[in-house]
Design goal:
It is a single chain. This protein is mainly alpha-helical. The N terminus and C terminus are likely disordered. 82% of the residues lie in helices and 0% in strands. The protein has a domain of 167 residues. It starts with 19 loop residues before the first helix and ends in an 11-residue tail after the last helix.
Length: 484
């Protein structure tokens, strides 16, 4: 067994080498492996039956809500708790595991009540409870994975996640291949989560302190993370609310059409948010905010540059090729998903800006501002869904997400921009000009070239312009005075 790691070790301020690329490669390889397995699994389900696929997607969204309630925002402050020299990592992890187990129990009971209230019938009822439990248990395994991230052991985390995905989705593929009933197929998620839970516990190498538990300690921890819980719960609610409205007014078929494209669009921004921002950059933001704010500003600006560059590239490809991507992946039954994707790609840009700003706000200890933004976004989203989705289900669901994410990005990134000057005017001009030039080249090229060649020319132009202006004309420099 590995010795108890030293969580308090902090790199020297001002140092540029944070092994970001190595850590990112470890998590990215595991995440892509998981995403590929998951994608093929659900594509196969979608091609067999759009209604079954829609039922699975609704169950997954409900399970995600259960997991976020069970996590209760505990993973974010766990980074700070584990980096304190005076703290006991075993005691901290034990307290959080007990809290999560209690919250998971309450969330699952609430989910059972919700599916009965909505009068979901078999097999959707069973899907929701089985898959929901699998996602809920993930709240426990992420506790150990957060500890591994603070230790800088993303490679071990990646291996554990990849093994769990292989066993879970491997079982799912085998169940489908051998003609198992859908309820048996749904067990893929509990299996994957149990493997992650065992693997994370063994890899963390931390002895849990069960005898040191006290109600006072649990209460203090709960109060400390209450604000993060509100953040997590409100975030998942405004991200998933439109799915439940869709189920009510458009049925499983409507959920399937929306989910087909949302799996692609949201998956792109989620990878950046969870792997790059939360798992790698956020711990650095937390460590350096009090000791070297210039370093935080430089990291944030560099992150904004290449995140937005990647986001623009993805938006262009996914939007232009939606009529090829959707039928190729899901088959001919998902015609509505084609036009949905052309509008929903804009949320990639909004999500990347907002997530970067959100983690910076947390690092700056401005969680209350973020809570107010989230609560306002949830209120707006629910009101908009209740008015628009009954009239035009798919368009209402898409527009609710676009407007909610756009407004949040405007408020949170606008605040960060004023405080840290993360995105100077010249960078903003580069993004705008590169986007306009590449789009003009694409639309103009359609008159002379085949669409694939026009898109390739536009992509190369976008990459070339960003590379020239940011790598050659606009290198990052550290100022003599710290950021405000």
């Amino acid at each position: 067994m590995n010795p108890v790691p030293d969580f308090s070790a902090t790199p020297a301020p001002g140092g540029r080498s944070h092994r970001i690329v190595a850590k990112l490669a470890s998590l990215l390889s595991a995440r892509w492996f998981m995403e590929i397995l998951q994608a093929f699994f659900f594509i196969y389900l979608a091609r067999r039956s759009t209604s079954t696929y829609g039922e699975f997607m609704l169950a997954i969204n409900l399970g995600t809500i259960i997991r976020l309630i069970a996590e209760f925002g505990l993973n974010v402050p766990l980074v700070g708790l584990l980096t304190k020299k005076a703290g006991d990592p075993g005691e901290v992890l034990t307290q959080l595991l007990v809290l999560k187990a209690g919250l998971l129990t309450m969330a699952y009971i609430g989910a059972v009540g919700f599916v009965n209230w909505q009068h979901y019938h078999s097999p959707l009822y069973e899907f929701a409870l089985i898959i929901g439990l699998g996602y809920g248990l993930e709240a426990l395994s992420t506790t150990f994975f957060t500890a591994l991230q603070v230790q800088g052991r993303q490679l071990q985390e990646g291996k554990s996640r990849a093994l769990a995905a292989l066993l879970g989705y491997g079982y799912g593929f085998a169940a489908i291949y051998w003609g198992a009933p859908p309820l048996a197929i749904a067990l893929f998620k509990p299996l994957e989560t149990l493997v992650n839970l065992v693997g994370g516990r063994l890899l963390a190498g931390i002895k849990l302190r069960w005898r040191r538990l006290s109600l006072a300690g649990l209460g203090a921890t709960l109060r400390r993370v209450l604000i993060f819980a509100v953040l997590e719960v409100t975030a998942i609610l405004f991200n998933k609310a439109n799915i439940f409205f869709l189920q009510r007014f458009a049925g499983s078929e409507g959920v399937a059409q929306y989910s087909a494209t949302w799996q692609i669009v949201d998956g792109c921004s989620t990878i950046a948010a969870t792997l790059i921002l939360q798992s790698i950059l956020f711990p650095l933001f937390v460590k350096f905010w009090e000791v070297d704010r210039q370093e935080v500003a430089l990291l944030a600006r560099a992150s904004a540059r290449w995140l937005l560059g990647a986001g623009l590239l993805l938006m262009m490809v996914l939007g232009a090729e939606s009529d090829r991507i959707i039928p190729l992946i899901y088959g001919p039954k998902f015609g509505e998903a084609i036009w949905l994707q052309r509008y929903l790609v804009i949320t990639i840009f909004f999500s990347l800006l907002h997530n970067l700003a959100g983690f910076l706000l947390i690092s700056m200890r401005l969680e209350r501002l973020l809570v107010m933004v989230y609560l306002a976004a949830l209120a707006f989203n629910l009101a908009f869904c209740s008015v628009m989705i009954p009239r035009n289900p798919l368009w209402g669901a898409a527009l609710a997400m676009i407007l909610t994410k756009g407004a949040m990005a405007l408020v949170t990134f606008g605040f960060i921009q004023r405080r840290l000057k993360v995105f100077p005017f010249e960078d903003l001009a580069v993004v705008a000009l590169a986007s306009l030039a590449s789009l003009s080249l694409y639309w103009g090229g359609l008159f002379f070239l085949r669409r694939g060649w026009a898109l390739l020319a536009a992509v190369l132009a976008l990459l070339g312009l960003l590379q020239y202006f940011w790598a050659v004309r606009g290198p990052l420099r550290k100022k003599s005075k710290g950021a405000d």
